Amino acid sequence: MQRWLILADDLTGANDCAVAFARHGHAAAVVWGNGAAEPGDSVVAVDADSRRLPPDAAAARHRALLEAWRSPGAALFKKIDSTLRGQPAAELAETLAVLREAGQPALAIVAPAFPATGRTTEGGHVRLNGDPLEATPLWARDHTYPTAELSAVLAAAGLDAGHLPLEALRAGDAPPAAALRGALAAGTAAMVCDAATAEDLAAIARATLPLWRRVVWVGTGGLAAALAAAAPGGRAEPPPLPSLPASGGLLLVVGSVAEASRAAAERLLRAGGVHFFPIAPALLRAGPGAEWHAAAEAIAGVLARGEDALVTIGTEPAADLRQGAALTEALAMLLRPAGRRMGGLFATGGETARAVLAGLGIGSIRLLDEVEPGVPLGLTRGRAGVPVVTKAGAFGNMDTIGRARDRMRALLQGRDPE
């Protein structure tokens, strides 16, 4: 079975990609911090936790991780954000530099489309639900580059790029193969690939898999799913889920300000059956005190009774997104007593999930299945099988948290989750 190394800029992205391989029969794990892979893992996704770093620091972290984890016998997938948050160009440039220095020059296959979540690439430009990415609230709230035109983004990092348009991709196997051969012969750094459907991504996978020793795939869970389906050695159906003993209640944490996540939290509250704990940013900034400890004990108490707790970071009209990492770390500290009581964790926002789990000494997840596209389910390692569902902040819809809660409850109770 082909081995894979996935290098991701946050935990939710690492999970999105690894679970695609798990669903096709590969033993897939995500690791971070001091976490370690196990001998049977054929797919290892490493979370660099670099989303909010400046370009030089993000690139340096990718270099260090690639040098530590790279194996000549493993195919390489560079996970980037589907809406170009973070520093994907600088990270890719450093990744290609490491490979060149090791005598393995590679062509980057850049295909960030994830049609199942509304992300497409057309004319070399990222679109969200049909609109130019630059015209969306996501871009207005958080973006790194002046444009979502991929060749320009790559050029800013010193990477020249060819372009494989939809019409060539859909014309059969010969045009994509010819374009790839030409780019490899010319020493081009990257090939930007359009994709508007899952079949477009499948065509990219079929055209590029035979070249796995000479390419680096750059994309999201959409491309990972296409590669996992086309790669040899897997199976069509996900493995059966284990039966777990029921323990504490579910800890449901919304650390994202994205509209999709907030709407899903509101829908869950209206449905009832959960205890709600909105945590004010001012409380997190102030640090441990009487109010802090009261909130921490109240959340832990709910979970100890086997009931579910929904925790959100309150919104502030003039919030500075640069404070997000500090608030997330503070929230993870506040939730540490709750984490020792929880029977399962749902977390939206990669920084949130990583911080909560790392605070409990957990550094690895074994991926099992998806609740829905882009919302993976796994089990922690280093603690007896605690189910974990993660979701990128802008993925999903108003029912996503409820579905994740139902799926984890079914797993803990030994029921058919469907």
TrEMBL record:
In terms of superkingdom, the source organism counts as: Bacteria
Molecular-function GO term, any one: kinase activity
The answer to keyword ATP-binding applying to this record is yes
Four-carbon acid sugar kinase nucleotide binding domain: which residues? 251-401
Cited Pfam families: NBD_C, SBD_N
Q: Which UniProt keywords apply?
A: ATP-binding, Carbohydrate metabolism, Kinase, Nucleotide-binding, Transferase
Q: Which residues form the Four-carbon acid sugar kinase N-terminal domain?
A: 5-227
InterPro entries, alphabetized: 4-carb_acid_sugar_kinase_N, 4-carb_acid_sugar_kinase_N_sf, NBD_C, NBD_C_sf
Q: Which family does it belong to?
A: Belongs to the four-carbon acid sugar kinase family.
Question: Can you say what this protein is called?
Answer: Four-carbon acid sugar kinase family protein
What does the organism's lineage look like at the top? Answer: Bacteria, Pseudomonadati, Pseudomonadota, Alphaproteobacteria, Acetobacterales
